[in-house]
Amino acid sequence: MKIAELKPGMRRVDVAGKIVDMETPRDVQTKFGPGQVASATLQDESGTVKVTLWNENITKVAVNDTVQIENGYVDSFRGELQLNVGRYGKLAKVESA
Fold first, then answer.
1. Domain boundaries along the sequence of the chain
2. Taking a C-beta distance cutoff of 8 angstroms, is the pair 34, 27 a contact?
3. Which CATH class is domain 3-89?
4. CA distance 11 to 32
């Protein structure tokens, strides 16, 4: 699926792209206890989308990495489209050939 096709409320989204920007992780308190969250920008040939990364997923990727997100979901935060890996999703770095 292409980033331009993403719409709020979509579930089971598989998308690949390149991390072009990443914020510094910040500490947050969740209902599951303390954690870290960071926002990254994912880009493919159709556009860009913000990706919310939690805890161990933050350290898995860096700017200029190509990644594959499987079983993610899309919502809208402050009027901006956001892609989430979520509890059941998977984030993997794609080795470039």
1. 3-89
2. yes
3. mainly beta
4. 22
Give me the count of residues in the chain.
97
Q: Is 9 exposed, middle or buried (0-12, 13-18, 19+ CB in 10 A)?
A: exposed
Q: Is the pLDDT of residue 96 over 70?
A: no
What are the pLDDT digits (tens) for 36-91? 999 999 999 999 999 999 999 999 999 999 999 999 999 998 889 999 998 899 99
pLDDT of residue 11: 97
Residue in 55, 18, 56, 19 with CA at minimum distance from that of residue 37: 55
Please provide the distance, in angstroms rounded to a whole number, between the alpha carbons at the two ends of the chain: 21
Distance CA 78, CA 76 (A): 7
Separation in Å, CA 30 to CA 27, 33, 37, 51, 82? 10, 5, 10, 18, 19
Helices (H), the chain: 56-60
Provide the β-strand partners of residue 94.
Answer: 66
